[in-house]
């Protein structure tokens, strides 16, 4: 004969154990979810910051253009390399500049130009960059031969580049040759910029002929620093 009292007691024990297991399982699951949420929020915040950073003009974008534009075997030889990095209007301007008689006269004589390095001053707000560019070239006295040629001649020039956003990338829309004058004897990064109107060319009219650039509100770096960061 079944003992009813013992049966009821066993049922109570089973119910208590089941409730305890459910409570314990729920507590553990809640703790794990609570721990994962901050990590997920942190990851989402990081992705958001990364997206914002990618929207800004970077020194790498500027350096890629300088490399394509200043490295060439002869006048116009590098068009296919810099064309994807500039606007259509800017490409036409650069092409017209290269085809001017004064530049064609140097074709075959100023050759093997190679971009060396540049100090790049980026204004991420205006999407502009001021660059102190260093490059080398060979100056021939006769075409098709380096006999009596001046090899590895060093040249430095300053340019201001304006970029525009096209889709997901920045492209060059304006280039001005400028003169940089250091206005603070104690500060390497404080310069007065004056446009050299005799050598400027762009796809649009210049809006100003003078401005100031300082280290306080600009991203200032060199191509050497950029390369070191990328290698690390």
Automatic annotation (TrEMBL):
Region span, Disordered: 200-232
Domain of life assignment: Bacteria
Biased composition (Low complexity): 214-226
Protein name (Swiss-Prot/TrEMBL): Parvulin-like peptidyl-prolyl isomerase
């Amino acid at each position: 004969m079944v003992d009813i009292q013992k049966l009821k007691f066993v049922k109570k024990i089973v119910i208590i154990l089941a409730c305890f297991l459910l409570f314990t399982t729920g507590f553990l699951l809640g703790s794990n979810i609570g721990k994962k949420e901050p990590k997920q929020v942190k990851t989402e915040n990081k992705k958001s910051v990364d997206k914002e950073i990618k929207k800004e003009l970077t020194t790498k974008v500027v350096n890629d253009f300088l490399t394509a534009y200043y490295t060439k075997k002869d006048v116009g030889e590098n068009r296919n390399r810099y064309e994807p990095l500039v606007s259509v209007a800017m490409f036409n301007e650069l092409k017209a500049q290269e085809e001017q008689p004064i530049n064609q006269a140097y074709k075959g004589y100023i050759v093997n130009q190679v971009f060396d390095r540049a100090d790049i001053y980026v204004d991420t707000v205006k999407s502009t960059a001021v660059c102190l560019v260093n490059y080398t070239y060979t100056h021939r006295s006769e075409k098709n031969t380096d006999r009596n040629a001046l090899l590895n001649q060093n040249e430095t020039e300053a340019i201001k580049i304006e970029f525009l956003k096209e889709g997901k990338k920045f492209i060059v829309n304006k280039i001005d040759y400028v003169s940089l004058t250091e206005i603070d004897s104690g500060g390497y990064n404080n310069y007065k910029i004056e446009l050299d109107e005799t050598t400027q060319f762009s796809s649009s009219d210049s809006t100003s002929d003078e401005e100031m650039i300082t280290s306080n509100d600009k991203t200032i770096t060199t191509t050497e620093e950029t390369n070191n960061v990328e290698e690390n």
